[in-house]
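Give me the 3D structure for Acetyltransferase.
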Amino acid sequence: MNDVVVRSLGDDEFRAANALFYGTLHVTPPTDEQWERVRDVYQPGRVLGAFDQQLIGTARSFDAELVVPGGARVPLAAVTGVGVRADRTRRGVLSALMRHQLTDFADRGMVAASLYASEGEIYGRFGYGIGTRFRDCTVHRHRARLRPGVPSGGEVELVTSIDDMRRRLPEVYDRLPLRPGMMTRGAHWWPGLFSMLHRQGGPVSAVVHHGPDGPDGFAVYTVDRDAGTGGTMRLLDLHYADASAFAGLWRFLLSVDLIQEISARHRGLDEPLELLFTDPRACETKEVLDESWLRLVDVESALAARPWRGEPLVLDVTDPVLPRNSGRYRVGSDGVRRTDATPDAQLDVDVLSMVYTGAWRPSALVAAGRITVREPTTADRVDELVLTRSAPWCGTFF
Ligand SMILES: CC(C)(COP(=O)(O)OP(=O)(O)OC[C@H]1O[C@@H](n2cnc3c(N)ncnc32)[C@H](O)[C@@H]1OP(=O)(O)O)[C@@H](O)C(=O)NCCC(=O)NCCS
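Predicted structure for Acetyltransferase (398 residues):
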């Protein structure tokens, strides 16, 4: 691997990187027209290429902010577009890209990085751990009758042109209170959604929900038509400010005619969808899977950005890729600082991410052999330390 060079790509190289990436996913690269729609997802200065004689691998990122438990926002590098040419895999090209990229993130003061993984075995070795999980569910529309106490919600407004969605949806998203695990959506994220909507075979619809203070939620969907049994509505995006907007949007979705079932993918694990219905089984969970993978780039700043509860504990963190993170941290309700004290728990930086968001209980990670504790009762104390109110959820695919 000595002769592989990784460097930042210029704007005139983005399309080649994009074509290489699509090739690794076995997807036809964008046409000229499609490229015009999607090129802005490539943030200048954030696209890497790996070369031997030619471009053989790529990885990119875009800047965003991550909401951490407690509600603070930290600088986030959202990593995507990762691929290595099929005839150059398994010789360390991705490793070279990841090392270069993470070092760059650290140098630029990013606190965290995250990504959606095509396969579960790829990113743990680079310090990424499962930071949020989602569930895919199917709502059987004719069985899904809303319970009497469900909020009535507000008015919904149908938006059928993608150009109008481009104008309206970012504004609404920016108004929403984001919960832990969620991220901001900027100018390098939205073009990816709209480009995907353009590539849908049939019509795409959106609805904006209006609450007492203005727009407070939206949903985007397509319908796979079936003249015989009624179609399947595919929910592509759904976000809301509160329980009223959540109920109002679902009240609308269930009211759309000629629909047999609604496929709601990538939803938060504790979103109470089935609890809206007189028959909770009208909402069937099809799959629970890892959603975003989180990497703490600056461990000390990340730990300091969220609240901790109870007595302080000393965590001994190992980070082989960014060794400046390795060390002991005293973490408690009174704050976070580096220490030389005897550790209560030892863990790798990928596992720290899994604990950090609240996606996993530390005691479960102890049981799985991913955290080593000084004494058995420490596991419960770490659970207490990281206690979070809700299951973290990202809800923004990239
Ligand atoms: C995933 C991918 C980028 C890996 O690139 P690569 O250059 O082969 O990776 P590396 O050679 O640097 O691999 C580093 C280590 O990860 C392992 N690894 C890499 N990809 C893996 C995979 N898909 N499954 C299991 N292990 C994998 C390698 O075996 C190697 O382990 P080792 O150090 O113990 O030998 C490449 O296979 C690819 O482009 N796949 C298709 C597109 C894709 O899935 N992209 C990711 C989008 S999120």
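The domain at 5-110 is CATH 3.40.630.30 (Aminopeptidase). Let me know if you want a second pass.
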